[in-house]
Structure formats: C-alpha cells, structure tokens
Amino acid sequence: MADLQDDLRPGVAAGGFDDLSESCPDEAVVTADPYEPVSDPDDAPLTRSHAILAAHPVADGYNGLPRALKRLPWYDLEDGESTVATDVPRLRSGHVGALFWSLHLPEGLDGDRAVGATLEQLDQAKAVVRSCDEGLRPACTAGQVADARNCGRVAVLLGPAGASAMGDSLGILRQLHLLGLRMLTLSGVSWASDAGLTRFGEEAVREMNRLGVIADLSGASPQTVHRVLNLSRAPVLCSRSAARAIRPHPANLPDDLLAELGAAKGLCLVPLTAEQTGPTVRDVADHLDHIREVAGAQCVGLSGMYDTGAAHPQELGDTSCYPRLIAELLRRGWDEADVALLTWGNVQRVLRGADFTARAAQQRREPSTAAIAELDG
C-alpha cells in the first residue's frame, strides 16, 4: 500500500511523528475559523452548534481509520473517500480538530506478534498522515495539537494501543513512545487483569507517567481502575466508555467508578455507537447528560469510534455529524462553556497534564530498568 500511496501523493516529505518541533509557517497560520460552517436558518440549535464548534472543535478520542484503509487498494482522503466514514472534507464539515487513531490489535495476538503488529500499525498510520499532509498533521502534545488547529489541519495522535503492544517490557514501551504512541489500554495482560495491577503493572504506570503516555482504562477491571486512579500522577481516561446505569455494556462504567474518575480529574470519552450508547442521537445525549451529572462537566468527552466496524446511530453515521449531536445538547440546555469542555477543552487538559507530569518526573526519575520476571516472578 505504501507504493500506492507514493503514486497517489508523490513527493510528500512532511508529516512525520519523529520531528514535531516546528510550528506552521507564518503564512499558513489560520487566524479565523479554518472550517466552513453550514448554517440552517430553520434550525437555530444546529446553526449555533456550528458556530460553537468553529471555536471549540471536536477532539475525537477513538478512530480506526488506518486499519480500515489497509483493506483498500487505493484511497484519497483529501478529496473524499466514500468507502470509509473519515476523510478530510467530512472532518472539516464535522469541525473535528484532533483524532486519536486506535492501534488496537485483533484478538489473540500477544508477545512478539503483538509488538510486531503494533509496529506495523504505527508505520501504516504515519504513511496515511504523510499521504494527506494538506489535511492532517501529526501531534504528540497539547501544544502541537493547537499548532495543527492554527494551521488549518486536523491533529493526529497515535493510540490507544493495547497493553500487549509493549510485550511486558518497559524498554519496548519507551521505544513505542519515541515512535509516537501516546495512549495505552491497561487490560488483557497478566500485569493488568481482573485481579488488578501487579508490582510490574504499577511500575509500568509510573513509567508511562514519566514518558507522557496516557493510561486508558476502558475495559480494565474495577480493581485496575481503582489502583491506577490512586497511583497515576497524570490524568487518565477511558477511551470508549459510556454510562452503565443507562446501558449495561461491559465497557461502560457504573456510577461509582464514574464519580471516582471525576474526582481524580480523569476523562470519560463516550462512544457514539449503537451497541454502547443506543440507536439514536438522543440516546448518546442521555449518556453525556448522565456522566456530566455524576462526574462533572470536566470528566466527559467524545469518541466517534468511526471506521472501527461498530454500528452508529443513523444521525451520527460519519465524522461530519458532530454538529447534530451538539445541537441536541443545546436543545437540552447545555451552555457553551460545557460544550467547549466536552469537545475540546477536556482532552487538551489531559494532554497538558500528561506533558507536565512527564517533565516533572523526568527530572527526578531515571528510566526504569525493572523486568516483569523480577517483580512478578
């Protein structure tokens, strides 16, 4: 596919995750809204939704585009690609300013196979960004996400990946971080299981804090969630969890964990899927209302889950549809400040918190040399 990409976008040199030190050139800085809102004079909440999202775009916490593109012999994201739910025109129509690209693996991969498959997905994701440098821009920090926004690009962050991606090695975790990984899901491994974190698992969380890799607790056991919330110095998040009180899906969170997550200044990113939140935009809004009430406005965000194979409510079929969801919230009385936190502010806060914690930790803590055999053997 890389060869096909080279044919499609010859001469692309920008967009690497390995050197993100440069901001956009002065002539590219966007001082006004880089998107073009679509107004509907007959729907005041929808018109207001576009205006709010123009100032506070969506930071989408979970998107599966790279893996979906791997099945295609050819694609063009910048002009539009009907075979997927995510492309640049629809991202701009939906006022999406940032995306986390999932690196989760198929079931059954572990050990060296999981590490190798994750490296392949990292390579694939970087190739997609390089092929779409006019619409997408790689980012690792809150500042780089803001730079991408100011350049009229959609920021792309890599992760979450499953914990098996690090192969029970903190050295591999560090290398994945150097390659751009910014979120790791703490489930499905011996050191983060139904029994909670082992000693090696606790050391992995400390090393993630030192690096700036955000802990994702979606799908983690309650014991793991409790321990990580007490241990982590950086904010944590759930990349795809809704309210179990409304819909009893195993990845959704009960109210006690939602309240604990809110007290720890964590973030619950609500998936826009029929399975976890329900078949209508009103169902999704019910979850957002509930989590805001239980955990606070600073605890709730959005995960589109587009191009992951999940079914979506009809009104939220692709990445252009976020204004419809925000319009529903406005009809329910959400004010602009809470919408701004939901779409953009809360994710930026978590990214800033991870960056700050990492800088502080690196001044007092050397890279960990702990091995799982030493701590859990």
From TrEMBL:
Residues 1-24 are annotated as: Disordered. InterPro entries: Metal_Hydrolase, Pept_M19. It comes from the Bacteria. One of its GO terms (biological process) is proteolysis. PROSITE patterns: RENAL_DIPEPTIDASE_2. One of its GO terms (molecular function) is metallodipeptidase activity. This is Dipeptidase.
